[in-house]
Write a structure and sequence with these properties.
This protein has eight helices and nine strands. Helix 1 (about 1-15) crosses helix 4. Helix content is about 30%, strand content about 25%. By secondary structure, it is of the alpha/beta class. Strands 5-8-7-6-9 form a five-stranded mixed β-barrel. The chain has helices at about 1-15, 30-35, 90, 95-100, 160-175, 195-200, 210-220, 245-270, and strands at about 20-25, 40-45, 60-70, 70-75, 105-115, 125-130, 175-185, 205-210, 225-235. Strand 3 and strand 4 (about 70-75) form a beta hairpin. The longest helix has 24 residues, at about 245-270. The chain starts with a helix and ends with a helix. The chain binds hypoxanthine. Hypoxanthine binds near residues 112, 233 and 235. The site of hypoxanthine has 13 residues, from strand 5, strand 8 and strand 9.
């Protein structure tokens, strides 16, 4: 897979003038940032030899490279989920692409369901830590590209300096930024009430179907990670509604404005 990554990186490099500084993975319904980038180059995954292809409704399946607040950003619209049938290694392939492009900072965003009582649909949660509850991990059998260390420290996968910066930014902008632990389930079912009770006992504040495995690789690649989660619903059994993907996408659209503002300020300041 190392060869596939390097080949994709060469294809991307041949289509852009300036190497990107920062990568952003855009979660379900969180595409707004891409609209605000200038001098954009759009690279559909279909046109890059070797890229896995996502099948989920609401994802565009492309990289967008462009300028945002004076920095060159590569945004990923459409990620690779385990529930699509991708292996853990396929799902994290883009992390190695980012690393090989020379990126040092990764911003991961996602949509998640609230487990903690003080979280509600429309809130933004700064991810402080995660639990990988997928039963899979992308480093088993060795990483796609070995950068020297087999046993990765995961004491603070979400960079403390970045978290503090984001908290300061939110405070200055008067945006209510929650904090919490994200748990990744494999999906594609939404969880049962019993799953959510368990996740709550385990210490999780919100639940989704991505991110933890990506951040595991990002740390192996020594990328500094900022994680932000848009709360789109109360997790199973904690709200009045049944869970639907349409609801998740709709909430993503309306509540993502503040998320864009926060990310814009963050990028300006790093
Ligand atoms: N569970 C899992 N994934 C999700 C949820 C949820 O409640 N909301 C958004 N993504």
């Amino acid at each position: 897979m190392e060869k596939i990554v390097k080949n994709i990186v060469n294809q991307i490099k041949s289509k852009i003038d300036k190497a990107p500084d920062i990568a952003i993975i855009l979660g379900s319904g969180l595409s707004d940032i891409a609209n605000e980038m200038s001098d954009k180059v759009v690279l559909p995954y279909d046109e890059l030899n070797g890229m896995p292809k996502s099948k989920v409704h609401g994802h565009k399946n492309q990289f967008i490279i462009g300028n945002f607040e004076g920095k060159t950003i590569i945004a990923m619209q459409g990620r690779f989920h385990l529930y699509d049938g991708f292996s853990a290694k396929e799902a994290v392939l883009p992390i190695y692409i980012f690393k090989e492009l020379g990126i040092k900072t990764l911003i991961v965003t996602n949509a998640s369901g609230a487990i903690a009582k003080d979280l509600n649909a429309g809130d933004i949660m700064l991810i402080t830590d995660h639990i990988n509850h997928t039963g899979q991990n992308p480093l088993i059998g060795g990483p796609i590209i070995d950068y020297g260390s087999q046993f990765i420290d995961m004491t603070e996968p979400y960079d403390i300096e970045y978290r503090n910066k984001m908290l300061d930014i939110a405070k200055n902008l008067n945006i209510d930024l929650k904090q919490g632990i994200y748990i990744q389930f494999i999906g594609p079912f939404y969880e049962t009430k019993a799953d959510i009770k368990m996740a709550s006992i385990l210490g999780a504040d919100s639940v989704g179907m991505s991110t933890a495995i990506e951040v595991e690789c990002a740390r192996q690649c020594n990328l500094k990670v900022l994680g932000l989660s848009l709360i789109t619903n109360k997790a199973a059994g904690l709200g009045e509604n049944k869970l639907s993907h349409t609801e998740v996408l709709e909430c993503g659209k309306t509540a993502s404005k503040n998320l864009v503002i926060l990310i814009r300020e963050f990028i300006k300041n790093i």
